[in-house]
């Protein structure tokens, strides 16, 4: 059976076109991985958050850091803020949805730590509040978003904005970015002798 409908193969074409542009952002993922190795290798931590599919990507990133990406290595401190359902639901109930991540950033983030926020729209109010809380705490705030310009990229220390035509393509390239950061992270650790 042959599959050649625009809805199916068109998705591959869209991803391929976006990937070509995205490849030019490799220097950002390289820099993030190296910086993350310095922060986490020095005892700091990464906090990550997103909504929906972006939450899954954020949790994928923290799992790679606490577990491993490719080769065995020590675990590093990385927390997916949305994964603590008791905290997120209590905060949403008591303080409102916009505070779900910001309150956790204020609780867990320390000066010099990294906060990675993932959003296809770059406009989620709870992530914008988290970015504000991270900057106030002296954290380095990175945003992985969809097309620029967007409020989250503007409110972060550094952003990698994916120019995808659809949410699905942006999310797929966010996963590529997560793996690129992890590859750079592991390479930096290896070079540092950890």
Automatic annotation (TrEMBL):
The keyword Isomerase applies. Keywords: Isomerase. The keyword Oxidoreductase does not apply. Pfam families: SIS_2. CDD domains: SIS_GmhA (cd05006). Gene3D superfamilies: Glucose-6-phosphate isomerase like protein, domain 1. Transmembrane segments: none annotated. Residues 36-191 form the SIS domain. InterPro entries: GmhA/DiaA, SIS_dom, SIS_dom_sf, SIS_GmhA/DiaA_subfam. One of its GO terms (molecular function) is isomerase activity. GO terms for biological process: carbohydrate derivative metabolic process. This is Phosphoheptose isomerase.
């Amino acid at each position: 059976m042959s599959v050649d409908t625009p809805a199916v193969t068109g998705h591959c074409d869209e991803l391929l076109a976006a990937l070509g542009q995205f490849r030019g952002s490799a220097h950002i993922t390289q820099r993030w991985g190296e910086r993350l190795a310095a922060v986490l290798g020095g005892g700091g931590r990464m906090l990550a958050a997103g909504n929906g599919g972006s939450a899954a990507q954020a949790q994928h990133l923290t799992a790679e850091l606490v577990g491993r990406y490719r080769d065995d290595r020590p675990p590093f401190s990385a927390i997916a803020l949305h994964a603590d359902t008791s905290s997120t639901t209590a905060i949403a109930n008591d303080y409102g949805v916009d505070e779900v991540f910001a309150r956790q950033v204020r609780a867990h983030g320390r000066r010099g730590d990294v906060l990675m926020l993932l959003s296809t729209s770059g406009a989620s109010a709870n992530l914008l509040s988290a970015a504000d809380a991270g900057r106030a705490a002296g954290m380095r705030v990175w945003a992985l978003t969809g097309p620029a310009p967007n409020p989250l990229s503007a409110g972060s220390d550094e952003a990698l904005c994916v120019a995808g035509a659809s949410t699905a393509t942006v999310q797929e390239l966010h996963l590529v970015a997560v793996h690129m950061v992890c590859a750079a992270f592991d390479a930096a650790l290896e070079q540092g002798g950890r």
